[in-house]
Write a structure and sequence with these properties.
Layout: E1 9-16, H1 20-26, E2 36-43, E3 49-55, H2 63-69, E4 74-79, E5 82-88, E6 94-96, H3 107-110, E7 117-122, E8 127-130
Bound molecules: zinc ion (ZN).
Length: about 140
């Protein structure tokens, strides 16, 4: 992939086509004042089509949010025009304040200042359960 437009930054690659914008919003990338590029429907050897996000700064991105939206995506850390680190994101074991528990009797429905915590209980089927009431997420 062509990364020559980035000297120090992050490239999120192999995003499932169509999820680029969702990730852009979820990671709040529009709040950055550096260059961010979203490439949609790029041709890929591994996948038919993919989205790519290029961030022109070495920021800390929330890998739990990214992994929850698209565990198949990969992150490339670019330093001095070269890929310094590359890894597969994967499903996060725990997600905090990304989704809300739908159980009206759950303690998080009553105590609004509690964190919404979901734990991965079935990796194969991507099932998360509320830490408090164990209701699975829809
Ligand atoms: Zn709950």
């Amino acid at each position: 992939m062509n990364i020559d437009s980035i000297k120090d930054g992050i490239v999120i690659d192999h995003i499932q086509a169509g999820k680029g914008m969702e990730i852009y919003d979820a990671l709040k990338l529009k709040e950055l004042d550096c260059q961010v590029a979203i490439i949609t429907n790029a041709k890929s050897q591994k996948m038919e089509r993919k989205d790519i996000i290029k961030i022109d700064r070495a920021i800390n991105i929330d890998l739990d949010i990214l992994g929850f939206i698209d565990p198949e995506s990969t992150v490339n850390i670019v330093k001095e025009n070269e890929i310094n680190q590359k890894f597969h994101v994967g499903l996060p074991k725990k997600i905090v304040n990304i989704v809300e528990c739908q159980n009206p009797r759950c303690i998080t429905s009553i105590e609004k200042d509690l964190d919404q915590v979901f734990c991965l209980t079935d990796e194969e089927n991507k099932i998360y359960r509320c830490k408090y009431c164990e209701m699975s997420m829809k």
